[in-house]
Design a protein that fits this description.
Layout lengths: L1 H4 L5 H24 E2 L5 E3 H14 L7 H9 L3 E5 L2 E5 L2 E2 L16
Antiparallel strand pairs: 1-5, 2-4, 3-4
Helix pairs in contact: 2-3
Protein backbone atom coordinates (compact mmCIF):
# COMPACT_ATOMS: atom_id res chain seq x y z
CA UNK A 1 0.00 0.00 0.00
CA UNK A 2 2.78 2.50 0.87
CA UNK A 3 4.21 1.95 -2.59
CA UNK A 4 1.06 3.36 -4.20
CA UNK A 5 0.43 6.20 -1.73
CA UNK A 6 3.94 6.86 -0.43
CA UNK A 7 4.85 7.11 3.22
CA UNK A 8 2.33 9.07 5.24
CA UNK A 9 4.05 10.95 8.10
CA UNK A 10 2.25 11.10 11.45
CA UNK A 11 -0.04 14.10 12.02
CA UNK A 12 2.31 15.45 14.72
CA UNK A 13 5.20 15.53 12.24
CA UNK A 14 3.06 17.29 9.62
CA UNK A 15 1.90 19.86 12.21
CA UNK A 16 5.45 20.52 13.45
CA UNK A 17 6.72 20.91 9.88
CA UNK A 18 3.89 23.32 9.02
CA UNK A 19 4.60 25.39 12.14
CA UNK A 20 8.31 25.53 11.34
CA UNK A 21 7.75 26.56 7.72
CA UNK A 22 5.20 29.16 8.78
CA UNK A 23 7.63 30.67 11.30
CA UNK A 24 10.36 30.76 8.63
CA UNK A 25 8.02 32.59 6.24
CA UNK A 26 7.12 35.06 8.99
CA UNK A 27 10.79 35.67 9.78
CA UNK A 28 11.49 36.28 6.09
CA UNK A 29 8.66 38.82 5.92
CA UNK A 30 10.01 40.67 8.98
CA UNK A 31 13.50 40.70 7.46
CA UNK A 32 12.09 42.23 4.26
CA UNK A 33 9.86 44.75 6.07
CA UNK A 34 12.06 45.90 8.93
CA UNK A 35 15.67 45.01 8.19
CA UNK A 36 18.51 45.89 5.88
CA UNK A 37 20.80 43.06 4.95
CA UNK A 38 24.31 44.35 4.32
CA UNK A 39 27.75 42.94 5.00
CA UNK A 40 28.64 46.00 7.14
CA UNK A 41 25.59 45.78 9.40
CA UNK A 42 25.78 44.63 12.99
CA UNK A 43 22.86 44.79 15.42
CA UNK A 44 22.54 43.67 19.03
CA UNK A 45 20.36 40.70 19.85
CA UNK A 46 18.19 42.94 22.03
CA UNK A 47 17.51 45.44 19.25
CA UNK A 48 16.68 42.67 16.80
CA UNK A 49 14.30 40.92 19.20
CA UNK A 50 12.63 44.23 20.09
CA UNK A 51 12.10 44.98 16.39
CA UNK A 52 10.83 41.45 15.75
CA UNK A 53 8.45 41.47 18.72
CA UNK A 54 7.03 44.88 17.81
CA UNK A 55 6.54 43.83 14.20
CA UNK A 56 5.03 40.45 15.08
CA UNK A 57 2.56 41.92 17.56
CA UNK A 58 1.52 44.60 15.07
CA UNK A 59 1.08 41.98 12.34
CA UNK A 60 -0.98 39.70 14.56
CA UNK A 61 1.75 37.06 14.59
CA UNK A 62 3.05 35.14 17.58
CA UNK A 63 6.47 36.57 18.52
CA UNK A 64 7.53 33.43 20.38
CA UNK A 65 10.43 33.31 22.77
CA UNK A 66 13.68 35.22 22.52
CA UNK A 67 15.54 31.90 22.52
CA UNK A 68 13.61 30.56 19.51
CA UNK A 69 14.04 33.87 17.67
CA UNK A 70 17.80 33.90 18.23
CA UNK A 71 18.06 30.27 17.10
CA UNK A 72 16.27 31.19 13.86
CA UNK A 73 18.69 34.08 13.29
CA UNK A 74 21.69 31.83 13.96
CA UNK A 75 20.58 29.78 10.97
CA UNK A 76 20.88 32.84 8.72
CA UNK A 77 23.49 35.20 10.18
CA UNK A 78 26.84 35.09 11.96
CA UNK A 79 26.57 35.83 15.66
CA UNK A 80 29.39 37.91 17.13
CA UNK A 81 30.30 40.19 19.98
CA UNK A 82 31.10 43.88 19.79
CA UNK A 83 32.48 45.60 22.90
CA UNK A 84 31.01 42.87 25.08
CA UNK A 85 27.56 43.01 23.45
CA UNK A 86 26.30 40.03 21.48
CA UNK A 87 24.61 40.55 18.14
CA UNK A 88 24.47 39.50 14.51
CA UNK A 89 26.51 40.57 11.50
CA UNK A 90 24.82 41.13 8.17
CA UNK A 91 21.48 42.35 9.50
CA UNK A 92 20.44 45.81 10.63
CA UNK A 93 17.13 47.29 11.70
CA UNK A 94 15.93 49.85 9.15
CA UNK A 95 16.43 53.38 10.40
CA UNK A 96 18.85 52.32 13.14
CA UNK A 97 21.95 53.71 11.43
CA UNK A 98 23.56 50.32 10.67
CA UNK A 99 26.55 51.37 12.74
CA UNK A 100 29.11 48.68 13.50
CA UNK A 101 29.00 49.86 17.12
CA UNK A 102 26.39 48.24 19.35
CA UNK A 103 23.24 50.18 20.14
CA UNK A 104 21.21 49.69 23.30
CA UNK A 105 17.56 50.16 24.10
CA UNK A 106 16.89 51.48 27.58
CA UNK A 107 20.46 50.63 28.61
CA UNK A 108 19.93 46.88 28.03
CA UNK A 109 21.54 44.70 25.39
Amino acid sequence: MWQRQGLQPPAAVVAATDEYLSSEDTLSTWLEDRCELTAEAWTSRTDLFWSWSSWANGAGEKAGTRHDFLDALRGRFAESGNNGVRGFRGVGVKGAGLSPLPRTVGGAT
